Amino acid sequence: MRPVPEARPTSAADGRAALFVWHGRALYVGGVPVASAPHRHHAAQAGVSLGSQFGVRPGEDEPYEAWAGFVAAPGAAHQIDARGAPGVFVWADPEHLAAGTFPAGGAPLRPVGEEQLRALLPGLRSAGAGPLDCAGAEGLFWSVVRASFATGGAPGRRPDPPDGRIRDAIARMHEGDLLRAERPIGRLAARVYLSEGRFRHLFRDQTGMSIGRYLLWERLLAAIDGAAKGAPLSEAAHGAGFADSAHLSREFRATFGLAPSEVFKNSRLVQVVPCPAR
Q: What homologous superfamily is domain 12-157+269-274 in, according to CATH?
């Protein structure tokens, strides 16, 4: 597993925001320096304001609505203007969420219910006012997910893969230059003595996520780690297996709605923390 750098505990109260990133999910606490561009992504997203209401809309042709919290289903187009309002935002690949969380026919972009907000806000404000590390961020992430997404299910963390071959493959992802290899999935399959097709099927069955999605998050984590340590984006991108900084920027924006340059150019105000898998 990748060694995880020690992160200084951070809080929204001291004016410094933090982006915590795990495999397939992320948590952002603090102010947002710019409005997001209209975008959609594979991950489900939710946000809760700790101050004034957010501006939320499906796209540039629609007027902003003022919401204290929002939920965007996987693939839902959305644009968020959270400038001036510290908040808590989560992203989760849908494979992390229970079946029925986004039932057919449900609104793809909707406000968080008033009852859920009343239950969430005291804990979120308390967490935002004090130091926050990966362990605290983990608890905060799941409290937002369960309150915001649990319309048809009860989202929770998947257990570790029971099959030793998949655990071994995950542990081997940082051996040598695998993330930069031309056929990383084939190489991982060979290392655990499976055909590539069987490996792909077993990996999804065991983790709930395709190996391709898992490797993308692994590369994002590696790039975030490199950039957080001061590497130029082009160097961080190449070291994580992206073709170039433009490739990293496309995937980062598609996941978070912001370009990495918009986050890392404010590195004195935004702490980016890669967290260990839980």
A: Jelly Rolls (2.60.120.10)
